[in-house]
Design a protein that fits this description.
744 residues; alpha+beta; Beta-lactamase; 4 domains; 30% helix; PCN-bd_Tpept; PASTA_dom; transmembrane; membrane; transmembrane helix
């Protein structure tokens, strides 16, 4: 067959084209081999990256503790269960590493996860049909405790695995929840959302580490893996000035009042006026930071809620007049009504302007006369001098307390009526913490202290103090002799028959303080709300009067009162209960003797090496209860430790020299369980409030340090009211008290 001339041409053309392509590809291959790069990408580095496995090593979030070392916020492992379905996962393994029998697996998992077995089987089978590598079981398979994880592991189910995470845990539930705050998971990290968790988030978070190594295509580590390990740097521990015992007194008492009177809002704070340390702080409504359900109030009202304080403001009006030398307590004035200038609405005393006739200024202060303080400002001190003192007390700015979300009130001083009404707590607004800061000058001989809640910050090992807060005098708005005179006068508000604060008397300690009844604006009709319940009833007091060791502010907004009850009753109940217990707890020597109720504390001796029975008898004679921990015959240590003071009827734990065992915890309070757990570094999980009715570890079992202990608590009557999880065994006082002043 004769070839066409064009055939040779096309053959030559194809040979040339393929030759060019071959030369190009060969040249490209030689270039890649010589340079090791493709489009600017280093192939050696790319291959190394492909072979390298890298994993993050999570840093553990730092703890939050009270001043005594009691843990208020901690971490606990949280587990998510999942099932591997891919048969290739079991390749080269003698036993199955994937789920082989969905029905059997489902039947065994169901009772532990609290799911229907058919639902679990359906999830697994659907995953197998989709050729999924693994499946999960929704909310029921998440946030599992260590106890649940161990229970599932004992089932020995092929293909069932766990992923460990970290969960923030607040062992005391509602305890100081607005101060401590809470966290939430964001991008696989815990982030503080409120309170100390938010303001100290960077210090608490720490820095993650990582581990990387080279592996083959089957994910097996190479013989020379070039492993790099960077250890995580755990978060720092934050110690607060809060005292767990005093906070418990406050939480429990406020819960009682909140349940009984159903107020719209409650605020209370306890401070050491000599240092500015906040020992307790609580709000109602509150919330459980573990669940964060039904949070009605996202603000810490003690620092974030400015309002016209009412007659507690008279403390500072009188202090200014005394310090300026214009106050004469024996001078008289006409009470009832005071028209300070033409055209202005007259000031009226709180008894509908009736007053008490011609009385002295001292009596006017005792009776909480609006006319008395108005005349002091308008006629004697002068409004501009009064403004100067308001600024000396820092009422024009924030306190600088180390809590997030602080707001400042506003000195309203535009019109003459504003200036006069500020004297008795209207027009101008302040937060409770501003009032407390100013009042430290009254309690502390003229020295005004900066309030604070963070005591110190320590490293993750608790071995090094990184930062420590020292008491700070921010100003001296009044002289020391002025402060003493004010305390003496405020003492008569409590102790005198014509004083408005008689119901705030303590059994063993003298009190100086001032009542307040703040009006509430009417948002619909303008002006102020009317009705005997539509006020913020408050009290600011300090004790003992001569040298105050504690200072407390309490405010209750719109309580539901019986016809025979006054608005001061819930306030005085809280103040009396918390202050009396706290002063005794701090071993403050009573400065008055009434009703024979003074209680002497007992200092614990060093019982180390003595027989358990001998120590029990010795403490029993002093009416101190004992709880023996361990099965030894000799006392190794006591909790509290030797040298600490305890009150009669309190419980001392005797740690013996034998094997450490779990005692029968039935009837213990959560606080007592946590105290015991701290000795052996046990992780405590609890359900409910009140006293222990069930424990996960049988009494007598050996203690394993760092292990988990689950307990169930119930109140004696079986109810589950809003008590603090650390409630004290002692019942709160039940005495109801009489009405305070109705001044603005």
């Amino acid at each position: 067959m004769k070839k066409l001339p064009s055939t040779n041409v096309f053959a030559i053309l194809f040979m040339v084209i393929f030759g060019i392509i071959f030369v190009f590809l060969f040249s490209r291959l030689m270039y890649i081999q010589a340079s090791g790069e493709v489009d600017g990408v280093d192939l050696n580095k790319w291959a190394e990256k492909q072979r390298t496995a890298s994993y993050t090593l999570d840093a553990e979030r730092g703890r939050i503790l009270d001043r005594t070392g009691m843990v208020l916020a901690d971490n606990r492992p949280s587990y998510r269960v999942y099932a591997v379905l891919d048969e290739d996962y079991s390749k080269n393994s003698e036993e199955a590493l994937h789920v082989k029998d969905p029905v059997k697996t489902a039947n065994k998992l169901a009772p532990v996860l609290g799911m229907d077995a058919n639902k679990i089987a359906e999830v697994i089978q659907n995953g197998q049909e989709r050729d999924a590598f693994q499946v999960e079981f929704g909310a029921s398979g998440e946030d599992l405790t260590e106890e649940k994880k161990e229970e599932i592991e004992k089932l020995d189910l092929p293909g069932i695995y766990f992923q460990e995470g970290q969960k923030r845990y607040y062992p005391n539930d509602r305890f100081a929840s607005h101060v401590i705050g809470f966290t939430q998971q964001e991008e696989d990290k815990l982030k503080g959302i409120l309170g100390i968790e938010k303001s100290m988030n960077s210090q608490l978070t720490g820095q993650d580490g990582y581990i990387s190594y080279q592996q083959d295509q089957y994910a097996n580590k190479l013989l020379n893996p070039n492993e790099i390990l960077k250890q995580p740097q755990d978060g720092e521990n934050v110690y607060l000035t809060l005292d767990q015992k005093i906070q418990t007194f406050l939480e429990d008492t406020m819960s009682d009042i909140y349940e009984q009177y159903n107020p719209k809002q409650m605020m209370a704070v306890v401070m050491n006026p000599e240092t500015g340390e906040v020992l307790a702080m609580a709000n109602r409504p509150t919330f459980n930071p573990n669940t964060r359900e039904n949070i009605d109030n996202w603000y810490n009202d003690i620092v974030s809620y400015p309002f016209a304080p009412g007659s507690t403001m008279k403390i500072f009006t009188v202090a200014a007049a005394m310090d300026a030398g214009v106050y004469n307590g024996n001078e008289t004035f006409q009470s009832g009504r005071y028209k300070f200038m033409d055209g202005a609405k007259p000031v009226r005393d709180h008894n509908w302007g009736k007053g008490w006739g011609t009385i002295t200024y001292d009596e006017g202060i005792r009776r909480s006369s609006n006319v008395a303080v108005s005349k002091l400002v308008w006629e004697k001190l002068g409004t501009e001098k009064f403004l100067e003192y308001l600024k000396r007390f820092d009422f024009h700015q924030k306190t600088g307390i180390d809590l997030s979300g602080e707001a400042a009130g506003q000195i309203t001083y535009k019109w003459p009526s504003d200036k006069v009404r500020t004297a008795f707590g209207q027009s101008t607004t302040l937060t409770p913490i501003q009032l407390m800061k100013g009042a430290t000058a009254i309690a502390n001989d003229g020295k005004m202290m900066k309030p604070y809640v963070i005591s110190k910050v320590k490293d993750a090992d608790d071995s090094k103090t990184i930062k420590e807060t020292k008491p700070q005098v921010v100003d001296e708005p009044i002289k020391a002799e002025t402060a003493k005179k004010v305390r003496d006068l405020l003492g008569t508000v409590i102790s005198s028959e014509d004083g408005t604060g008689q119901e705030y008397q303590l059994d063993d300690y003298s009190v100086a303080g001032k009542t307040g009844t703040a009006q509430l604006p009417d948002p619909e009709n303008g002006g102020f709300l009317t009705g005997r319940e539509n006020y913020i009833f408050s009290f600011l007091g300090m004790a003992p009067k001569e040298d105050p060791e504690l200072m407390m502010y309490v405010a209750v907004k719109q309580p539901e009162l019986e016809n025979t009850e006054a608005g001061s009753e819930p306030v005085s109940y809280i103040f009396k209960s918390v202050m009396e217990k706290s002063l005794h707890y701090l071993n403050i020597t009573p400065d008055k003797k009434t009703k024979g109720l003074s209680v002497d504390s007992i200092e614990l001796s060093d019982y180390k090496g003595q027989s358990v029975e001998a120590v029990k008898q010795s403490l029993g004679k002093q009416k101190v209860q004992t709880e023996v921990i361990g099965n030894g015959d000799k006392v190794r240590a006591t909790l509290p430790q030797a040298g600490n003071k305890v009150l009669p009827e309190s419980t001392v734990m005797l740690l013996t020299d034998g094997d450490a065992v779990i005692p029968d915890l039935t009837g213990w309070s959560l606080r007592e369980v946590l105290k015991y757990a701290s000795v052996y570094d046990l992780k405590v999980e609890h359900i409910g409030n009140g006293y222990v009715v069930h424990q996960s570890v049988d009494p007598g079992a050996n203690v394993k340090k760092g292990s988990y202990l689950s307990i169930k608590l119930e109140l004696p009557n079986g109810s589950d009211n809003e008590k603090s999880g650390t409630e004290d065994r002692a019942d709160a006082d039940t005495e109801n008290l009489e009405e305070t002043d109705e001044s603005g």
